[in-house]
Structures are given as structure tokens and as C-alpha cells.
Amino acid sequence: MSETAEHTGHHIDVKEFHPRAQAAIHNPKIRKNFRSAMDGLMSKRKTAFEGWDLETLRDLGANVRLRALANLPELLEQLEKKLTENGIKVHWAVDGDEACRIVRDICKARDAKTVIKGKSMVSEEMELNHYLKAEGIEALESDLGEYIVQLADETPSHIIMPAIHKNTGEISELMHEKTGTDLSNDVEYLTASARQQLREKFMSADVGVSGVNFAVAETGTLCLVENEGNGRMTTTVPKCHIAVTGIEKVVPSMEDVSALLALLTRSATGQHITTYFNMISGPRKAEELDGPEEVHLVLVDNGRSSIYQDDELLDTLRCIRCGACMNHCPVYTRVGGHAYGTTYPGPIGKILMPHLIGLDEGRHLPSASSLCGACGEVCPVKIPIPDLLVRLRQESVDGDNLHPAKVRGHGAKRSSKEALIWKGWAWMHASPGIYRFGTSAATKFRALQPSKAGAWTDYRTAPKLAAKTLHQRMKERGQ
Amino acid sequence: MSSRETILQRLRNRTGGELTVPECDFSVLVRDDWSTAKRIERFEKMIESVHGEVHHCTEDMWMDRLAEVLTTRGARNLLIPKRHEIGQALRNAGREDLPELLIYDEPIESWQAHLFNEVDASITSTRGGIAETGSLILWPNNDEPRLMSLVPPVHIAVLKASELYTTFREAMQAQNWAAGMPTNALLISGPSKTADIEQTLAYGVHGPKELIVLIIE
Amino acid sequence: MVDPIKVYPSKPSKVYFYGTCLVDMFYPDAGIAGVELLEREGIEVLFPQDQTCCGQPAYTSGYHDQARSVARAQLDLFPGDWPIVVPSGSCGGMMRKHYPDLFKDTPDEVKAAEVAGRVWELTDFLLNVCHIKLEDLGEPTTVAMHTSCSARREMGVAEVGPKLLGQLKNVNLVEQVRPEECCGFGGTFAVRHPEISGAMVSEKVDALVETGTRQFVTTDCGCLMNIAGYAEKNEKPVEGQHILSFLWSRTRGKGGQQS
């Protein structure tokens, strides 16, 4: 196949956020599924952290990530050196396309026809499955949620629970239609069927592709959390294992991992720990009887080094991909993951995706938030998400005189009309005399206040101007 | 310029201000006042909360318990370590109430189908456990390879109470993991499970459906 | 986000009153109620007539030059070293939490930080600085508290409203489900993403109605016009008012309290 095999680009148009959000809000099934799922996850997280000094633990999480980011280039070099010593081959990819090519080349060199995949958000970011398919390589998801989503030819709607938007009946119909299982509401039966189908694939797959939760520089170790065992299968049974990860995932030591692991699983699903915590430091040694012969790590940049340039935006890279932010987000709960149209949905999606796809393509993302702060309150590494959203809004209108805009696609939301409105607003509000004149005039003519005021009055009555302003009332009191 | 150099240069030559390196105080993770009894109690509670099974044993009778467990499961065979004392003890005991003992001593390629389809249970040693999270520490090796604790639907693990640490950090420091990690190391904290179908728990997705821990006190 | 340790000042003889633009134009009674409550505690209330707006609408829209120019005009209003009390979690939060950032690397950096450090949400100030003791003169009634997101997460005053309402012996305080979830106002969010905002406020109103209460109170006028406006348009049996109006109307007439 040619060097530039055709693969679908960002096949969902982010600019269509409004219609999708609208549709989701009026879809009772989505509303119900997400409401009950998020309620459950929030409650479990709360229970899991009982007895912990949570604020101190989050401080530690934040500091561990910041310490790693402060030394990122050195850590990546150290990681590469240790991994290489351990027999793991390290590759670097500037963007998702290059990462896809690297994976393809490794597969082609091994004449691989089938790839089995453990859960990896970075591989979704790369759109690896589409790419490999166009290259004639079958890529099958093994995580049950991802498997379901793949059967439906959809993308995940949540970074931890990919099929959260589907209920049992739908999944049963899907599996019946695509794989011939009986229709059944028995979750055990459906799970056992999937287990059987996927076991055969594990045994026959040529290559296993996985993500990485933490990459440890001091020992050259790749760490993976999972509950099902498919991660272990993917990284053990096929003869070749390729791990893909973002460059920001590296930490100096296993001790750092102990802190982050304590935060990750409790924040994500309320589990004290996942069933398996897998630590891979090399391919099968000569005397070993199982394990892959070859292990590769692909370090993916794809916009992360741009985020790294800016002191404020850098905090975006602290993320350990737990999903707590979206679990607590009132917007996400109502529109679900697909409405965003991006690999990463929810609050982390809103602050990350503009760097990956540009603020022009992602123009609706920073404003789709009431800045309630629930996300920042639960983030295990204390990313100041609302502040970053405000910063991205600033970038969307091209920054200001003090802080010229930097993010790719900046200024995409700047309209001369809105800029003029804010300039007028500022002129009036920075001049007390004009403000008092304007507001007292408004109250005098309040009978003429329109009862319809755009989008506001579609849902609510218009607020009613008072007969006298507080300024006037206080003046009357002699104050 | 290679992609590696492109990326590293961008990171090294960042435009922002100097990045401070914060102090990391790990004391919030420390639990240094748990007695052995408390650790065992907590470990058992955690494992049972995720459908694992715990049996309190001694050196004298763990094999009896093992035999009972395997009989109730109707296991036709048991995959055991070749050289580890557990395996030695089982072979030397020559017990009638144990099923056929199998050894994993060929590369997986030669008997994969058999392992996946015909082996009912396995028993492995552990490198200790973690009480706080109810976790077993395994470092698979040539004697007890990785798939032993992953493929058979029943996995029995032998844990020495004296090797039960309170926290993950304590365990890794006591065992000096920083000095070097094996090709594969694991924490196992229950039988395989998923909640991907409408947040309903189901067990035995890809890994073992049952995890049974024999604690030797 | 929340001050890790809030160091309250001792009760002063004067305060600056920063009304906020929404109180100014739509709910001046709430402002007057706040003034009355403070004066009853023996505090002289200074109202700088040149106050306009804290600048938040432009700030959250990304127009920081404009936000800064309006905020700048507020910085000079508080020359004396008196606390600045604000009947709003949102505007209070803007001033206390965001003014230092907004003026970073400007000549006003020090002044902005100094002003920010003196800002207090009004009910917080009444409870924890004045140690107000409220005597309920009203008939038995039921009320629910809506704590705004900024009051909760920026100003850390989630416990204050319930505590003050708890002092009123004839008031039955009920709690709606998911009290910490946003009502959907979010300033310009309500008009930029009206369908999402509408879905949020709809659920908030349902939650309030479900408690059986016919009224709710809040520290924030944005939330107030959002929730009350939705209830009114959709004929839901719940009405709202600013908590200061409620507290004043329940306790007015009684002589000043000992400090």
C-alpha cells in the first residue's frame, strides 16, 4: 500500500456540537443512561476516598506530575535509555499519522494480519484502527466496552467506560446481529460469549497493541491498569507487543506510581485498585516460556509539546486520564460523550482537544461550560480546569494586549461585532457617571423592556428591571 | 532532523518561564501502625469484596484445603510450579484427592490450545501481598510463567502472612523495586471482571473467574 | 480553589458595600436588606457611588482587556482599610480569586491583590465576622437553599446559608437532591448554550419542587434570575429571592444585636 494510505481524518465535525448537544438533550435514553451512570461513579469515588486526607493526597498527585513535567525532556531520555537496555524498542512520533505509520511498519515487518488491542485512548486519538484497516490489517478491540463500541462502528463516549451510552438490551441486540449470540438480558451470558469470541482472537493475533498508564524512567517500566485481563492477554500472548502513549505520561520513579495509582483508580471508578496492575519492563527473555518476543513503545507528541511551551496551559499535561472530571460535569451528564465529537470528551476534552485539533475546529469547546468548577474540585492532580477554559476563551478571541494569543487556531471565535459590544460595555462600566446615567435611564424606561430577549427567554422569563437602582436608593439614604 | 530530535528540542527550548520542581511529600500514603492481624483482616475483607476467596492455612494443612477447593470446582487438573517448593511439595505428597498435576515447562507456542481449553486450575506462589488494597504481588518467571495466573479459570495463590505489607509503597520499598524490575510484574487484586454492560458486574471476562488465596500463617 | 485557611478579620466599625451590577439593576431590595443587616450589627456601611461592575462577564468571555479596564475602575473605590462585602458568591469570587491573576504583570498588581484580600461574601461576613444572631419574627415556612457554584467552590461558603437559616426557628430548611450541581446559569453560558443550560435549570427546578418547598433562597442573583425565571415561565410552584432579602424580612423590626 502507498505511504499515505487513505484513512478517515477527523470524521466527526466538531463544529456541529450544537445540533448534537440538542439531540442528546432531547434523547431520554441518553439522559437516563448518563444520569444514572454518573451518579453511580460520583458516589463510588466519594466512598473510595473515605478515611483519606484527600486534599493532601491530591496535592501529592499534583506535585508528582509537576515534578515530572518540569524535567520532561530528561525523563524521556532516561526512559528511552532504560527501556532500550531492557530490550524494548522506542519510537518517537511527532503526530498521530506518524505514530500510525510506525505501528504499520512494525506490523508489516512481521507480516502481521491481525492486531488485538487493549484499551488505549492515544490509539483512538491516532485513529489507529481506521488506518490499519486501510492497510489491510484487522484491528480488534478486546476491552469489552471497546469491543461493543467497535461492533457498533462507533467511538467511545467516555474515556473509562466506552459503552456507557448503551444499555443491556441494545448490547444484546448488537452482539446478536454482529456475532450471532442469543438475545439475552443476562449480563453473565453476554460476557461469557464475548470472552469466548475474544479468546480465540488472542490466541491467533499477530500483534498486541496497548496503551500505557504510567511510564517509569528509573526502571524502564510500562504500567497498565485493567479489570478484565484483556490488557495482560494483549501484552502477553501475541508475539509482538506495541505500546503507544503520550509523551507526558513519564514519571521518574515507581514511588511516584504508588501515589498516582492510589488516586487513579479511586477517582475513575471508585475502586481501591483495579483487578490487575501490570508492570512490563521487557520482552520475553531467552529462558522464559511466554511473553512477547518483541516489545515496542511509541512515544506520541501530537500537540503535547506545544501545550508544554506555555506555563499556564502546561497544567493540561498533568492529566492521568481518570475521567473524574467528566463524571462530575453537569454538561457532560446531559449531552453524553459523543456530542463533543472529539476523542476526549468532557472537561479534559475541552482543554486538551483545542491543542490537538486547533481552536478553529474546536471553537465551541471552551465555551460549553458554566465554569461550575466541579471538575477542578475532583481532579486528582488539581488541574485548574475552569481557569484553563477561561484562558482558551481568551485565546479564542485572539488574546489581549497583555497576553497575545498562542494556541493553534486562536481568534477563531473573534467577531468584530462581539468585540465592539464588549468595548462598548467596558466604556460604559469603566465610567461611573455614564453607568449611573445608563442604568437609571433603563429603570425609568423599564416598561419598554422586551419580554423576549433571545435565547434567555426561550426558557425563562426575562429578569425585571427595578424601579430604582441600588445606587439611587443608597443616594436617597444619604449613602 | 529525526522526530525524536524535533520533539526533544521543542521540549528543551520551551518558551515559558522556568519550571519549579515541587517537593513531593509521600507521608500521606504511609500506614505504619498496622499489626499483622489487622493486615490479614483488611486483606481478606478487600479480596472478599471483589468475589475473591480467602482460606487461612498453616504449613501443615494447606494441601488439604487445596484439595477441598479443587474438588468443589470439579477441577480435572492443576497447573503447578516446576521448581518452587509449592510444586515440589505437591508432587512429593502423592495425594489421591488432588487432580492431575501439570507442569508448564514448554514454551507456550507448543501447547497454547491445551492451556487455553483444557487446564482448569493453576496454583502459583506470590512475592507477598498488599493489605490496603487486597493485592497479591507476582513476578512471573521461567518457573511460573505469566499465563499461569491468567488463563485457567481458577487461580489459586499462596500468600505468606509474613510477606503481607500494608501499602504498595511499603512493598516496593521493602523489596527494592527501584533497583530493577523483571520483564513482567503484577498486582492481582481479584478475579477478572467488567462493568461495561450498563455498570453491571460480571466476572471471568478474560482472566480467571475465580481467585482463591491460601494465606499461610 | 477555596482559601485553604480563611483568616477572618475582627468585626470592624465600617465596611465598603459592593452591590454588584445585577443587584443594582434587578434586585436592589436585596442590597438594601444587606445594608440594613449590617447596620443593625452596628457597622457603618460605606457605598462608593462610583462602583459599577466587577468585570466578570467580559472576563469569562475571554475579553480580558475590557474586563481589566472595568475592574481597574473598581480598584480605587476602597482607599480605607475596611473589609469589602459583596452580596454575591460570583462577583465576590471574581474579585477575591481572579483579580490577582487579572492584574498580574501590571502596575496594579499589588493593589489588586490587596483589594482582593479584603473581599468577603456578605452572608459569610455576617456569620463569621459579625457573629450575627437572628431572631425569627415570621410565620412557620419552608425554604430551600441554593448555594451557587462560586459561593461553594470559590468563596467556600456552602455551610453559611444553612447555618443562618438554621438560626430562624420557624423556618424549615429542606435540601434538594444534587444540591452541589450547577443550576446552569454560568453567565454567558446560558445564552451561548441555551439548550444545555435549559436542561440544567429544568432539573434544578424539579429538584426544588420535589422537596415540597414553595421558595428557595440564594446568595447569587444570576442563579436567582435563572431558576426563578425558569419556574415562572414554566409555571412551576417555586419562587426565589436573595437570601439577604429573606433574612431581613424574617427578622426586621427587632433592635440591634449585641456584637
Could you characterize what this model shows?
- The complex is a heterotrimer of chains A (479), B (217) and C (259).
- Chain A is an alpha/beta fold.
- Chain A contains 22 helices and 10 strands.
- The longest helix of chain A is centred in the first third of the chain and has 21 residues.
- Helix content of chain B is 27%, strand content 25%.
- Chain C is of the alpha/beta class and 259 residues long.
- Chain C has a 4-stranded parallel sheet, sandwiched between helices. A 4-stranded parallel sheet of chain C has the order 6-5-7-8, sandwiched between helices.
- Chains in contact: A-B, A-C.
- At the A-B interface, α2, α3, α4, α8 and α10 of A face α1, α5, α6, β9 and β10 of B.
- Chain C: This is (Fe-S)-binding protein.
- Chain C: GO terms for molecular function: oxidoreductase activity.
Oligomer: heterotrimer
- Our count of domains of chain A comes out at 3
- Output the number of helix runs of chain A: 22
Could you give the distance between the termini of chain B? 60 Å
The name of the CATH topology of the largest domain in chain A is Rossmann fold
Strand-residue proportion of chain B: 15-25%
> Helical proportion of chain B?
25-40%
Tally the beta strands of chain B: 12
Principal-axes geometry of chain B comes out as globular
SSE succession of chain B: HHEHEHEHEEEEEHEEEE
Radius of gyration of chain B: 21 Å
Domain LUD (chain B): 40-216
Pfam family, one (chain B): LUD_dom
Organism (chain B): Marinobacter adhaerens
Protein name (chain B): Lactate utilization protein
